[in-house]
Design a protein that fits this description.
The protein is of the alpha+beta class. It is built from 6 helices and 8 strands, in the order ββαααβββαβαββα.
């Protein structure tokens, strides 16, 4: 699949800062390396379930080379540097994919986990993915709320210190708004992704408590 430029979007953080969201490319390898180096030990652990002090060449290649269908990664950039990554990983022929996020420590609590989930879900539906799964550390309450606040019927199962989540991706108001903004952007009419309950003049992402964003795998 070719690079899906229509997935790009400009969004506002909770404090009004403008950031850019777009699909990852192989050319982002150095950016991803620098981003990973900024993450605290706790943030890395909550994303990978281990310390992951650095990204191996194999991991870096896998994370930056995606097919934009069964394997998708979206990045949020500030001053051309990555501050957040959301991705889903599925298998060819499957309608299910595992979703994961990591947000730079300095940008946690600004709603980026929620906006990444909205945009990943919209991309997934476009590609025929209809079900997301995730594994979250049980004490990562902020990330658990990202899922429950998104409007899905989320099922969960506790397993040791982890929580397994799964839900069908539905056309929530937020996903409909993402698609509408994409259509408007392609027509040259949209500058900012906004929540459906907010008029354009006050567009901003609601704050979401994300003390240490990250999911396993």
């Amino acid at each position: 699949m070719t690079y899906p430029s229509h997935w790009e979007a400009d969004v506002l953080t909770a404090d009004g800062a403008r950031v850019h969201l777009r699909p990852i490319t192989a050319a982002d390898a150095d950016r991803l390396t620098r981003f990973h180096a900024t993450l605290s030990l706790r943030t890395r652990y909550r994303r990978y379930f281990n310390a992951m002090p650095y990204l191996s060449e194999q991991a870096l290649f896998r994370f930056t080379n995606v097919d934009y269908h069964y394997r998708v990664a979206l990045i949020v950039l500030v001053d051309d540097e990555i501050v957040a990554v959301g991705r889903y990983e599925g298998a060819a022929g499957s309608a299910e994919a595992e979703v994961a996020f990591v947000v730079a420590d300095a940008y946690q609590g600004h709603g980026l986990g929620s906006v990444l989930l909205d945009h990943l879900a919209a991309a997934a539906l476009e590609c025929g993915i209809t079900r997301f799964t995730a594994t979250v550390l049980a004490d990562n309450h902020g990330m658990l709320r990202v899922f429950t606040d998104a409007g899905y019927q989320v099922s969960s199962r506790f397993r040791g210190g982890e929580v397994d989540l799964w839900f069908e991706i539905a056309d929530t108001q937020r996903i409909v708004a993402v698609r509408a903004d994409r259509a408007a952007r392609s027509a040259g009419r949209s500058q900012l992704t906004r929540r459906p309950d907010m008029p354009p003049s006050t567009a901003r992402i609601e704050p979401v408590v994300e003390p240490d964003n990250g999911l396993a795998r």
